[in-house]
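Handout, section 4.2: multi-component inputs.
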Amino acid sequence: MTRRKVAANRNRERILLAARALLLSQDFSEFSMETVARQAGVSRLTLYYQFKSKAGLLEALNDFIARRGEMGELAEAFRAGDPIRTLHEFIRVLAGFWDSDRELIRRLRAVGSLDSEVGRSLAERNERRRHGCRVIIERYYHWYPMLPEPWASRAVDTLQMLTSFETFDTLAVSGRKFDEVVQILHKQAYAVINYTPPSI
Amino acid sequence: MTRRKVAANRNRERILLAARALLLSQDFSEFSMETVARQAGVSRLTLYYQFKSKAGLLEALNDFIARRGEMGELAEAFRAGDPIRTLHEFIRVLAGFWDSDRELIRRLRAVGSLDSEVGRSLAERNERRRHGCRVIIERYYHWYPMLPEPWASRAVDTLQMLTSFETFDTLAVSGRKFDEVVQILHKQAYAVINYTPPSI
DNA sequence: CATTTAACTATACAGGTTGTATGACAAAAG
DNA sequence: CTTTTGTCATACAACCTGTATAGTTAAATG
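Output:
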């Protein structure tokens, strides 16, 4: 990594942080290449040089917040032997990620619904989560083989819904504490796999 | 209702239909007052005369699709004596509404997350749905009084999450048929109130 | 019937946006 | 020492929203 690239990356990060701050401030109309550049203390053309377009900047911002977290903890969840424990951890880790920057994620998703270019990069990450859901259901199916096939596919869809950002957000928006939201999600997930928790 | 108002209302409707069509066409960037006016065969200034601003047009569009449907069927659901039946119908009617114009609703909600003015009008309707959820849980609590209080409040939140557009949309987006989605929602709602359906 | 009013339109404008073209510049890399 | 890379300045085209001003026509009103 050359000295120049290091400096450039530091600049990139400053820009992304400025973009984040402005995306959080009340109205999306305030979010323009000009204001982001000014807030980052950088020329507007630098943004175009680094991110090519406004959509490119938003995609980069999405990757930026997605990369910190996720990977490590999620992989660990899948190393647990018990599929119930894995399910438990999977939900908890994802909820933690959604909770880490809720307002920002909500706005990024909104932009993704309106701009097909940004939308594609979100759908990609969605697909990875779906794969996680499928693996969990398959493992559970292997452990407790009383589940007929049409059921399993439905379970995957339901689990994906329960682990989505939108689900977490609508639960959290009514003021619930993080732990309570996770408890609700766990209980709903039990219903998906017809599991009755031992205690209570 | 004067003859003039009738003609004006017909124009309003033409504009709203044009706005709907353009909001559905791929990219939100194509949605401008100019293109909407052209598609409706009307001057751009007529839009400002009728809706005051772009946000006003989007709010009106939201009211427009919200008014057809909902009211009648929802009220009927609450007339059922059995709270389980009411819950059942409540979910089915709302799902039907979300399904009636999914793409459009998704985009309108996205705009609402980015524009605080449009957002307020969406939050209002959300509050009405929340009230419905509360009534259902309270009725159930009255019928089957084995539910302690912290539980009931949680049930309301969970039910609101399950009946939200976002929940329906993420389930439907994976290709499920409407009836299947409703079945999934019913099953998850049973988990909320710890209800076991009589026949498997 | 005469007059007012409501809905709509035409033109023009101010101030904002994105994205590109062109060229310069300094510091790091080779 | 020469080249490359990241940044910046200025300028521009083509949009956008929202407003001001004034004109038109058909319906409502007295």
